[in-house]
Amino acid sequence: MEVVIVPDARAGGELVAEAMAQLLRRKPDAVLGMATGSTPLPVYEALADKVRSGAVDASRARIAQLDEYVGLPAGHPESYREVLRRQVVEPLGLGMDSFLGPDGAAEDVQAEADAYEKALAEAGGVDLQLVGIGTDGHIAFNEPCSSLSSRTRIKVLTEQTRADNARFFDGDIAQVPHQVLTQGVGTILDARHVVLMATGESKAEALAATVEGPVAAICPASALQLHRHATIVADEAAASKLKLADYFRYAYANKPSWQSI
What we know:
The chain is α/β, with parallel strands linked by helices. It has 8 helices and 10 strands. Helix 7 links the parallel strand 9 (193-198) and strand 10 (230-235). Helix 1 (9-26) crosses helix 2 (41-53). This is Glucosamine-6-phosphate deaminase.
């Protein structure tokens, strides 16, 4: 795994946004897998700045959704479709016809999950998938002990994850749905490049388990150790428990200048 330690979230956002921009210059119709939450916001802001300045053309890009709550009505401000519309699709000047994502309000939720897997395959797969990490090591909504070969499916959230996400629902955990649709770990591993971003001391233990621990279902993010092109971008606080932090700093500082993350 490639580990890049950055000074702060803003520096990490710029680094990942530039990797996305370079991808779009090589492949204008690339499929970008986007996560939600507070961690990726610096990426989306930096990428939108690049589009507005003319540094990159994103007009043919396609945006793929990582996960979605089950049961929120269409248009709910905290549905991830709506979040990505506000934070990614519109700032990049795209329309929702560029968007790939499951409907968490569908009558047959598992059929919707299967249809999303098919849609991703028909789009040619995800070129770059951005993910965050939970304090318990989950990626997307693949909670601990998820199958490392899982596909898009329904999952039940842990109380810890619901508590972590309550801040988006006026601090009221009762408003946070119990079920979600999520890309599986195996689905995420199908992406050509996976970038995991981690910021803050609260993610330090999970990140250390992901990078330096065994590959184990108790820490679903550890499956990224098996990926052919996985990049970890972490700020100093999130990297504070990495035993090999100094090596990772040295290795990245000595990469050939032409290599992108």
